[in-house]
Amino acid sequence: MSVPKFDALKVMRDLSQNFPSRARSLTRVAVKQEMRKEIEKNQKHLGETMGIQPGDGELFINGLHIDLDVHNPFSILDILRGEAKVLEGLHNLGIKGEHQAKLLRLPVNTVDDSYALDIRHPAIMWMNDIENDQVYRSWPASVQELLRATFPGVIRQIRRNFFNLVLFLDPLQEETVELVKLAELFYKHKIPLRIGFVFVVNTKDEIDGFSDAGVGFYRLLNYIADEYDLSQAVMSIDSIYNKVDVGETLSADTISAYMKKKYPKANQERILGSDSEYDYKRKDGALFYRKSGLGALPLALFNGVPLNPDEMDPEELETIILQRIMDTTAAFQRAVFTV
């Protein structure tokens, strides 16, 4: 700290590369009490907010976290060049000083032409709730956990609904079986992902759940939600589709057999028949789907943003969703860092 500013980096490099030979002379350097307190304060703050302990090292450039296990000197140089272009642009606009520093921390990623849908729609049946479900109670809830150091590729388990996946499904399509099982896989492995379903079924006023498996499926979910609770209804989706093999579709016989085994005392005619009292909100999913203007089913929204049709392959979707979580985490990290 006693050397001129333009020599500081040179001295730091010399000390880090030749520490054993410099250690003895360093022990003789008197450290001011004021500086000692500042270092201890910084260590405490970094440890509590980012999980950075004394001796650890992290690199941030204008609020952007640089993973040194991923980046090399050349990629870091590209980042610096990009930041320099932004700095030059701000300078040309006459923005300097504190305002310039604040603007530099803002994300400047190219905005694509995608859009996001409001995922608070009542037609969505949520499978889980990261913030309120008991199974996630042991997870930390602070947004500062986003800045805590982890191993590369590790998804942080934070008790917040940061990541949301909504699947628009026709219960009678073959792809639905694999997509439901993928959702079950995410849930069982405790991926920090809130999962919701929008079931698009037949909207005819008078229809029999014994002849239309999609309608029967929806009425059964309403029955379970009414007689037991919504969480059990949503979890039963997995149980029902576990009776359907990949490559096959859901049938009315499958639903009837499931009811006989799971709810033997239930009156199937009253639940699945044309005069069912459990037919409410059946049209909501189809109405939401039509108003959204989305393409052919099945569809998925990640945090409200529709996935491309070529991303809906069940074999590839798992990797795509996990990558979306990692990419979105980086954006959240920068937002938290700049607050």
From TrEMBL:
InterPro entries: UDP-g_GGtrans (IPR009448), UGGT_TRXL_2 (IPR040694), UGGT_TRXL_3 (IPR040692). It holds the Pfam family Thioredoxin_14. It comes from the Eukaryota. Residues 7-105, 118-337 form the UGGT thioredoxin-like domain. GO terms for biological process: ERAD pathway; protein N-linked glycosylation via asparagine. One of its GO terms (molecular function) is UDP-glucose:glycoprotein glucosyltransferase activity. GO terms for cellular component: endoplasmic reticulum. This is UGGG2.
